[in-house]
Predict the 3D structure of the following.
Amino acid sequence: METPVLRLADITASAIDESDPREIRLTAKELAKYSLQHGDLVCIRVNGSKALVGRVIQFRANRVWAYCDHFIRLRPNQALVDPRYLAYYFNSQTVRSHIELNMVSSAGQNTVSQGTMLDIPVPCPALEKQREIIAELEKHFSRLDEAVANLQRVKANLKRYKASVLKAAVEGRLVETEGNWKPAKLGEIALSVRNGYSLKPDADSGTRIFRISAVRPMELAVDDVRYLSGAPADFGTFLAVAGDVLFTRYNGSREYVGVCAQVPTGLPPTVYPDKLIRVRVPIDQLLPAFLVISASTGQGREFIESMIRTTAGQSGVSGTDIKAIPLSIPTMAEQVRIVAEVDRHLSIIREVEAEVDTNLKCSQALRQATLARSFQQP
């Protein structure tokens, strides 16, 4: 009989998602050693994200699970402490500060040790008092969780709305058009399609060079940079200029391969690296902003996804793939109207997203303030 083994992907906000487990066959001895039982606490031991390391949930599932070495199992003495009380306490800012102070980082991974977790001082009132605290927290968090769920639904709806706007834009339904659009491949129109500068950043100051993470879907984070020694003139044609469209050439996540963004005006001298592909187009035939829209949705994005290849954990596309992106190009006047209307919709979406994100941060701050009050020493 196979046993599900806990992965980080199986952990939701405060529970275990049992819908898609990874199962392996364990011996009786292994199962006895690594099984989880009701009331156990599971602590994330190692992760690339510091915010996730040390996070604790109470194990509650409908079947027996095992855990791997990415986690630490904590089994409370339930005669002394209610596991729910301990789970709440371990996720308070007091404990987070202790974990962050003692966390070890190496090779992009962050780790908290079993010793660090065992050294955490725990205020331990009588069980009756613990359960009063639990009841009060659950009352507050029930309302807070409902508000957060509503905010997350708004974010999901905004994402769907954005997708529908972009789809309508490339299908000629967002603004009134003549419908006489010219089919072409990007390489037939582009002035150049070129990989970036191949040497790695080597300085703490000097000439800016984009990180791959600077290019996000339809958005360029202009200050997401590292530095190269030397003056901008040393890097010649590898400097990004206003109107360039930058595509990600490869990424660990397929979702971010081949995404693109336009370089804005006013950018300080910045090199683009070989992790990116630069496309320049004749702006009297194809607006860079319209290219970004076309490559981010519909047949353009579908084509890019069909060309992604994965090797040794890295997914990527080539300049040849980018040249082959199919486009449907309206007149310049129609491109201008489409770009303006897309910008108007996306501006509204960004404003609402910013408000939602602010409220989500406030909800997290309120959660921590509530925990702090609950565990405050008399």
Observations:
- The CA atoms of residues 294 and 300 lie 6 Å apart.
- The two ends are 51 Å apart (CA to CA).
